[in-house]
Amino acid sequence: MEQLAQRVEDLEMKLAFQESTIDVLDQQVIKLNDLLAEQQHQLRVLISKLQSVEPSNMATQAEETPPPHY
Q1: Per-position b or e across 14-30, b if 16+ CB within 10 A of its CB
Q2: Distance between CA atoms of 20 and 47, rounded to whole angstroms?
Q3: Per-residue pLDDT tens over the stretch 9-56
Q4: For the whole prediction, is pTM greater than 0.85?
C-alpha cells in the first residue's frame, strides 16, 4: 500500500510540474503573439509609407541609353 501512495505522490509531483511548464509556455505564446501582431502592424505601416513615396524621376536601367563608347 505504501508503494501505491508513493506512486500517487510521484504522479502528483509530475502533474504539478507539467502544469507549471504549461503556464510558462502559455505566457511565452502570449508574448510571441503580441510581438507578431506588433511586427505585422509595423510592416503594414512600412508598406504604406513605401507605396506613398514619389517614384524617382531617374530612368530605369532598361530606359538608359548606352554610353557613347558602345
Answers
A1: eeeeeeeeeeeeeeeee
A2: 41
A3: 999 999 999 999 999 999 999 999 999 999 999 999 999 998 888 777
A4: no
